[in-house]
Write a structure and sequence with these properties.
single chain, mainly beta, 3-stranded antiparallel β-sheet, Jelly Rolls
């Protein structure tokens, strides 16, 4: 890991594309920040979002770049539109969904960094079973919670 003593940046249009659970653009990696954080953009089709999950070691910050999203965190729900932000604490059961009618875009910052590697890792194993995806997730301190219901 490199020392984080110079600014990490990503020009408009830069980033490494990972096609796993939709299109993700990795903008800044943990390697660039000495492990401090990772940053990626996610394109989320209308009606889509991940299953409930927990990041065991990372806080997660979202900024809505385009669209309308609902977020659920530890039993609470909030709806946000373009320009809105939300911070999700580590260890919380959470999810989000694009509740708009068009493609939505999110900027996501994880601290500490490293989770941004999950999407390229999954993309590297096309057709992986959910069991295998769960194994990959565990390598990135991610746990899916499939028995959690969405509250209105």
């Amino acid at each position: 890991m490199t020392q984080f003593d110079k600014a990490a940046f990503s020009h408009s249009g830069d980033g490494a594309e990972a096609l796993a659970f939709g299109r993700h653009i990795i903008r800044i990696t943990a390697e660039q920040t000495g492990g401090s954080l990772g940053c990626f953009e996610a394109e989320v089709p209308a009606g889509e979002g991940p299953p409930f999950h927990v990041h065991e070691k990372e806080e997660e910050f979202f900024r809505i770049l385009e669209g309308r999203f609902a977020f659920w965190c530890n039993g609470s729900r909030v709806e946000l539109t373009e320009g809105g932000v939300i911070c999700v604490p580590r260890g919380s059961v959470h999810t989000f969904q694009n509740v708009g009618d068009t493609m939505g875009r999110l900027m996501v910052v994880m601290t500490p960094g490293g989770f941004e590697g999950f999407f390229p890792a999954v993309a590297g194993e096309p057709g992986a079973s959910m069991d295998r995806i769960g194994q990959i997730a565990a390598q990135f301190n991610l746990r899916f919670v499939f028995d959690h219901a969405v509250a209105a």
